[in-house]
């Protein structure tokens, strides 16, 4: 029985009523693609590109980047692949992008802000992505569906800046990460120009609770079950529904099976996580319908703190599993 369970085909992510919830992989290197596919990833929801930049003291060439992106795209024919442009600064310092000393780097020149200050790096990255996209168009299994998004978007203006520059380079689907409370609160405006939003719950939690995600003494605040975080996610989910645009989740929260159900109940249309988390999330989603997920999310939203939100969701989920 065990052998047949292992060799049984992995089904696509879905709720009990059949509502599809694509389950995607977070990857930090194209080398992880094969394993992600084997674990049932239906595509890539977050490809972190920092690895290309962290290994040397200077930016990689367009050619080096193109090779990496081509390898990634070629592993996912016909599938969605969401690439995040460089997210430097704060927990990912890069001396050649920003060498100014900052007292509070998480609140400093990071993400899209750092890329705008060194726009050549952004332009080179978009060039390499467009080239990789073109290079994979003629593969026998067909191309991947390339989506590109920017990290740390805080304003509508940054959204317009990024989507315009990405489209200049031929990127067809350009979106933003929602990981700053301002962009969650303005998601309805942001989704007027962005093609999609992807919520980074790690940073969204850090910035909502004003607790450095790297600092052990405030680690207890770094809990995406906090109802304040859930309310912001609901804002984005509602905005996605109004505009008919996808809202993914790519922070660690999506890897918690019960929280994954809550996130779908709040309006997330896909979930991206470390590939090893896919199986548990897939199994838990299958136990609840979309109506159940909304009820479970409502129970969590009504709580006062993270621990009671988790308990309330668990109690609500027990009624339909
Ligand atoms: C996040 O902030 O949730 C996220 C996915 O980005 P990173 O963890 O790379 O900052
Ligand atoms: Mg982040």
TrEMBL record:
Which residues are in the PEP-utilising enzyme C-terminal domain? 14-287
Q: Which domain of life does the protein's organism represent?
A: Bacteria
* Keyword terms, alphabetized: Cytoplasm, Kinase, Magnesium, Metal-binding, Phosphotransferase system, Sugar transport, Transferase, Transport
Cofactors needed by this protein, per the record, are:
Mg(2+)
Primary residence: cytoplasm
**Where is this protein localized, as stated in its record?**
Cytoplasm
User: EC annotation?
Assistant: 2.7.3.9
Under catalytic activity, the entry for this protein gives: L-histidyl-[protein] + phosphoenolpyruvate = N(pros)-phospho-L-histidyl-[protein] + pyruvate
Q: What does this protein do?
A: General (non sugar-specific) component of the phosphoenolpyruvate-dependent sugar phosphotransferase system (sugar PTS). This major carbohydrate active-transport system catalyzes the phosphorylation of incoming sugar substrates concomitantly with their translocation across the cell membrane. Enzyme I transfers the phosphoryl group from phosphoenolpyruvate (PEP) to the phosphoryl carrier protein (HPr).
The UniProt family comment states: Belongs to the PEP-utilizing enzyme family.
Protein name in UniProt: Phosphoenolpyruvate-protein phosphotransferase
Source organism per entry reads: Microbacterium pumilum
